[in-house]
Design goal:
Distance between the termini of chain B: 57 Å
Number of strands of chain A: 10
CATH class of the largest domain in chain A: Alpha Beta
Mean pLDDT of chain A: 89
CATH superfamily of chain B: MetI-like
Radius of gyration of chain A: 18 Å
Strand content of chain B: under 5%
Helix content of chain A: 25-40%
Order of helices and strands of chain A: EEEHEEHEHHHEHEHEEH
Helix content of chain B: over 70%
Largest interface: A-B, 33 and 23 residues
CATH superfamily of the largest domain in chain A: P-loop containing nucleotide triphosphate hydrolases
CATH architecture of chain B: Orthogonal Bundle
Bound molecules: adenosine-5'-diphosphate, magnesium ion
Oligomer: heterodimer
CATH topology of chain B: MetI-like fold
Number of helices of chain B: 10
Structural class of chain B: mainly alpha
Chain lengths: 252, 260
């Protein structure tokens, strides 16, 4: 159990209600989306390209503001006076991971601590020793401790994925939103990483919302799933009930 | 029989025709077609060239000191300008700064850039008196105008996902500038800094015309008293300096800035 979370155990990890969003006036990209992700569960968002998956994730992470509807993380409205203590514990992993190319794996993981580190230290490149230790141990938990001092642009796809996960875990996250989480990895590696995440999610009682495409992986590793078609939910329920024909339906 | 086909579109041909016409008119206006005047010019050049040989090397110690001052002004001005340009660039970048700040900063930077460093130096001579301080400040101000703009645009080119990832973590604007924007654009920024330094070394050699320090003072002096042999020594020194700097900065760029 994460410290400081127990008092809100019965709240949903993520709750979205009546979400509507448009980048340009009246061109709705997200229409009336409702979503409930319990703590300790993985939720997959599926749908064809352009369906609004990335947009939904940015809304859930508080990076975009909806024109209508609300998003709550552990009961707190994410777009309205969200306490910094919760803000810094919402992890977001963009599609291309958003690593700083010219920095090492260790430094990239340390970025996850920025939200809780004030003062001049980090700006001068000084991080508290215990944070550095924590980043190191995350890297070794993710199996890439030997790459700690390798620059991000020299890492392989799978290694970069792990560094991004490490950065999110460094936040001591309550929830992680990950865009196209394993789409760029080959299947065995994707399965391995999802398995690892599933373990973490269950151990630490955090929650994961991921955009992904691969039905077999969804069935095996994911708890609940939603399918988007042109910004609207056409399926929402246990991942086991998801079928090819539903995904076909979304594509039409 | 082969027939040639006109591949240029009609309005394209018209455009090029107009450009050529304008060019000819402009050249005529400045007197490039007055053959006898040009001929006289060549003749004068020959006389001047003859008067410069042999260059008078007695002036070397004096010229060396003045050249050193020129270099100092260029380095100090460039560095000072660079240090100010970094925050200006950050504040002028739309992806990390609020728009009122962006507009204000960009306006300031544009003003600094509109006025060449020689004129800034004149202004500073009035403010702080003759000497290298005025020149240094003039160079610094123009540098802010130039680098401030280039840097703002460079910083705006940073991968938005890197920024998003750090914003998601709860990082502050300063964190974004320090950890996402700067490392992602440092190489390009330093490369621009080297160009700026080269430019400022050339620019600082004429600041002395306005009494703002450096070798330019002696250039204008020997020009006025028609002492072309000493003038030649000065010009050779400047030529040597610029060539050295060209080679050095090309080497630096190649060695340190083009990788990764
Ligand atoms: N920054 C943006 N500005 C304007 N339109 C956008 C932007 N990002 C995405 N869109 C549009 O919103 C729709 C949904 O995009 P996105 O959320 O990226 O879908 P997905 O991730 O499912 O492929 C698409 O039509 C896309 O063109
Ligand atoms: Mg997407």
């Amino acid at each position: 159990m994460l410290p400081g979370v127990s008092e809100v155990t019965d709240a949903l990890a993520v709750r979205a209600k009546g979400l509507r969003f448009a980048y340009r006036r009246n061109q709705w990209v997200i229409r009336d989306v409702d979503l409930q992700v319990p703590r300790g569960q993985i939720c997959a968002v599926l749908g064809p390209s352009g369906a609004g998956k990335s947009t939904l994730l940015r809304l859930l992470a508080g990076l975009l503001h909806p024109q209508q509807g609300i998003v709550e993380v552990l009961g707190a409205d994410i777009h309205n006076h969200l306490p910094a203590t919760i803000r810094r514990r919402i992890g977001y992993i963009p599609q291309q991971l958003g690593l700083i190319r010219s920095r090492t794996a260790l430094e990239n993981v340390l970025m996850g601590a920025l939200g809780r580190l004030g003062g001049l230290g980090p700006l001068l490149g000084l991080f508290p020793k215990e944070e550095v230790e924590r980043a190191r141990s995350l890297l070794s938990a993710l199996g890439i401790e030997d790459k700690a001092h390798e620059k991000a642009f020299r890492l392989s796809g799978g290694e970069r994925q792990r560094v991004a996960i490490g950065r999110a875990l460094m936040q001591e996250p309550l929830v992680i939103m990950a865009d196209e989480f394993v789409s760029d990895l080959d299947l065995p590696l994707a399965a391995e990483i999802l398995g690892k995440m599933r373990q973490l999610v269950h151990q630490k009682g955090l929650s994961l919302v991921v955009n992904m495409h691969e039905l077999p992986l969804v069935r095996e590793y994911v708890d609940i799933a939603i399918v988007l078609k042109q910004g609207q939910i056409i399926f929402s329920g246990p991942a086991q009930e998801l079928t090819w024909s539903l995904l076909e339906e979304a594509r039409r | 029989m082969r027939r040639s086909v006109l591949l240029i579109k009609k309005n394209e041909a018209l455009l090029w025709g107009a450009v050529a016409l304008l060019l000819i008119l402009a050249l005529r206006e400045v007197g490039l077609f007055e053959v006898d005047r040009l001929w006289r010019g060549l003749h004068n050049l020959a006389i001047f060239a003859k008067d410069t040989v042999p260059p008078d090397l007695d002036v070397l110690p004096l010229a060396g000191r003045a050249l050193w001052e020129t270099i100092e002004m260029a380095f100090a001005g460039t560095l000072l300008g660079f240090v100010v340009s970094l925050p200006m660039g950050m504040m002028g970048a739309r992806n990390i700064s609020p728009w009122p700040l962006v507009v204000g900063v960009r306006l300031l930077v544009a003003i600094a850039r509109t006025i060449p460093s020689l004129l800034w130096a004149v202004l500073f001579v009035i403010m702080v008196g003759l000497g290298p301080l005025a020149g240094t400040l003039g160079l610094a101000l123009y540098t802010v105008g130039y680098l401030g703009k280039i840097y703002a645009e460079l910083f705006e080119g940073v991968d938005p996902e890197v920024l998003e990832a750090l914003k998601g973590v709860g990082a502050s604007r300063l964190h974004l500038a320090r950890f996402a924007v700067w490392p992602e654009s440092a190489n390009a920024a330093l490369s621009q800094l080297l160009f700026m330094l080269e430019y400022n070394v050339r620019a600082s050699s004429i600041l002395g015309f306005a009494g703002a320090g450096g070798i330019g003072f002696y250039i204008s002096l020997y020009l006025q008293v028609l002492d072309y042999q000493r003038l030649a020594t000065l010009l050779l020194l400047i030529l040597g300096l610029t060539l050295t700097l060209d080679v050095a900065s090309a080497w630096l760029r190649e060695r340190y800035l083009l990788q990764g």
